[in-house]
């Protein structure tokens, strides 16, 4: 492959991933007009349109999607081998990009990241918080983080945390003005803080289980949040009841700033897992990260 052909293919992949000429040009370090000229030259050489352009979006055509699927693994392989060669030094180096839910940052990464960064000073870590079901291949992440139940079967999954238990919590001030619920269906009489699901756009139905029976309750309230952190703050402020990971509010429960209700109905989910495509060639830096965060039950 000639150098100009390689440049064209790399440019095309970046635009297809970013769905934007502006963002792709910024990542490639070229001007938007130069990038547009490169893509036009590639399309002219192949005799087929690869990208559908509108005023708001850029997306691969059928031919473009086929080309992405065909060449992307080769570019990933090249990047992995370059990383592997550079890792022949005394210690791994490189940049790791992850996407994860907001609560996983506090539950999994915050306790262990400082030690990892000290042990591997040549590795940098980028954590992008997104509670949706992000396409890690399309968005060019090294890996994603989800609860075990939510990972596709074609992904490699590595457990990085213990089981996660959820709790319904509220402040003493809130319960001073409202009756304590004795069963999940009582939540219909309460002001509950809802969580908006970014992928579907709907509201998350609170999940419960008891005596082997699992069910969900759709709650109502004046507040809707997109992240767990603000939902915890809302409960602390007395604005309503929140449904959150118990470990994130344990200190508030211990201090009496929050009270848990319906604990007999609280569900437990498989812990958080790091997941990535099975065909991806992991770099030494990424392999070191996986081993450092692999969950080992004590």
Can you describe this structure?
- It is a single chain.
- With 298 residues, the protein is α+β, with helices and mostly antiparallel strands.
- It folds into 3 domains: 3-75, Orthogonal Bundle (Arc Repressor Mutant, subunit A), CATH 1.10.10.10; 94-163 and 271-293, Periplasmic binding protein-like II (D-Maltodextrin-Binding Protein, domain 2, 3-Layer(aba) Sandwich), CATH 3.40.190.10; 164-269, D-Maltodextrin-Binding Protein, domain 2 (3-Layer(aba) Sandwich).
- It is 39% helix and 22% strand.
- The chain has 9 helices and 15 strands.
- The strands form 5 sheets. The protein has a 5-stranded mixed sheet with strand order 4-3-5-15-6, covered by helices on one side. Strands 7, 12, 13 and 14 form a 4-stranded antiparallel sheet that branches.
- Helix 1 packs across helix 2, helix 1 (3-18) crosses helix 3 and helix 1 (3-18) crosses helix 4.
- The chain is elongated and about 75 Å long.
- The termini are far apart.
- The mean pLDDT is 90.
- Belongs to the LysR transcriptional regulatory family.
- One of its GO terms (biological process) is DNA-templated transcription.
- Keywords: DNA-binding, Transcription, Transcription regulation.
């Amino acid at each position: 492959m000639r150098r100009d052909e390689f440049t064209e293919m790399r440019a095309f992949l970046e635009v297809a991933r970013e769905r934007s000429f502006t963002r792709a040009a910024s990542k490639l370090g070229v001007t938007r007009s130069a990038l547009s000229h490169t893509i036009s030259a590639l399309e002219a050489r192949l005799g087929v349109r690869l990208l559908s352009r509108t005023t708001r979006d850029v997306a691969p055509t059928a031919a473009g999607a086929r080309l992405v699927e065909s060449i992307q693994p080769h570019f990933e392989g090249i990047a992995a081998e370059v990383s592997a060669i550079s890792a022949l030094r005394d210690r791994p180096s490189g940049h790791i990009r992850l996407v994860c839910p907001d609560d996983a940052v506090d539950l999994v990464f915050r306790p262990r990241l400082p030690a990892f960064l000290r042990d591997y000073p040549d590795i940098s870590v980028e954590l992008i918080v997104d509670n949706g079901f992000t396409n890690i291949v399309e968005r060019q992440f090294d890996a994603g983080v989800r609860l075990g139940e939510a990972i596709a079967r074609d992904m490699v999954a590595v457990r990085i945390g213990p089981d996660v238990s959820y709790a319904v919590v509220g402040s003493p001030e809130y319960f001073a003005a409202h009756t304590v619920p004795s069963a999940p269906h009582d939540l219909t009489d309460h002001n509950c803080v809802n969580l908006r699901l970014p992928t579907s756009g709907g509201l998350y139905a609170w999940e419960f289980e008891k005596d082997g029976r699992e069910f969900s309750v759709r709650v109502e309230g004046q507040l809707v949040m997109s992240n767990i952190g603000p939902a915890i703050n809302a409960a602390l402020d007395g604005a309503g009841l929140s449904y959150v990971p118990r470990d994130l509010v344990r200190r508030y429960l211990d201090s009496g700033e929050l009270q848990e209700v319906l604990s007999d109905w609280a569900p437990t989910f498989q812990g958080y897992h790091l997941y990535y495509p099975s065909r991806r060639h992991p770099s030494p830096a990424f392999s070191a990260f996986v081993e450092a965060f692999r969950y080992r039950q004590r």
